[in-house]
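Slide 14.
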Amino acid sequence: MGVTKRYIHSMRANQIADLAKILSNPARVAIIEYIGDCDGCLCQDISEKIRLSQPTTSQHLQVIKRAGVLKSQFKGKAQYYSIDARKWEQLQGLFYDFFEHTKLKMSEK
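Slide 15: predicted structure.
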């Protein structure tokens, strides 16, 4: 597969692609759903809930966190994860605008 030429695309197109990437994996979707239902979740609890190993869960958490959708906070030695509400709303807005814009273009044909 070739190198993606991100620089030739708009910032919006790159943001949508980056955020879609975190939703393209069912394990990450399950993680986001689970974390959305709690105030702060430990990696161990998440891995037990979604039935993946802790190292695999941790890798998925890092992908989601790099995208900015997750916040984490240490309490002692434990790291708790939660959804970044501001970033989540941004994600919703980007996807909503994308689908609305695309729907309008398609309906004009």
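Speaker note: The beta strands are 41-42, 70-75, 78-83.
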